[in-house]
Amino acid sequence: MVFLIQMAGIHYRRAKMKIRNQIDLTGRIGLVTMMGTFLLVFLLILGFNPRYGFLESTFALAPESRLPKWVQLPPGYTRADVSATLALYSGPYLFGLGDAAKFVLCGPAPEHKKLLVEKIRARWHKVTAQEENRNGNYDFSPQYYAASHVGIDDIIEFKCTGPLFWMVDKVKTKTQSPGLECRNVNASQISKAISSCW
To answer: What is the pLDDT of residues 140-151, one digit of tens each?
Structure first.
């Protein structure tokens, strides 16, 4: 009889520990889920710019490209003196952030003084959108954005998949598939140019 009582007590303690461990595990999972949700919300808030939206990607203006039509160089600067970056954003159309982009024009090294920071409207050009509808994806080159600022329209071209963009006057209707890689591009140099002119 004593043996049976001892065995029942052991089984009772094991069952109690098992239930306690499950409660601890559930509490830990709940805590991890709560922390993960908090981290996600924090990162979303951190990545959200109220003026532009959520940052999608950043590009550097190719050195051989002309400047956008709406840019007036300050006195004493030439095209060779300046660099530019373009940041594309996505955001809720509800707040008018759907087509936002940021164009930054910087002076020469080493200080890379910001000469111009403009919010522009940039959206897929109709030629690129039509090609995407035919292909079902964006794996082709070149791709175009229609950009406008202060009533002046211009065309942004992405000749290849990479961190560079060009300003062009006309859209090429012939595309190459798949997307071409940018050749003869020093990625670290472009990355440095983007980070210094941001």
So the answer is: 778 888 999 999
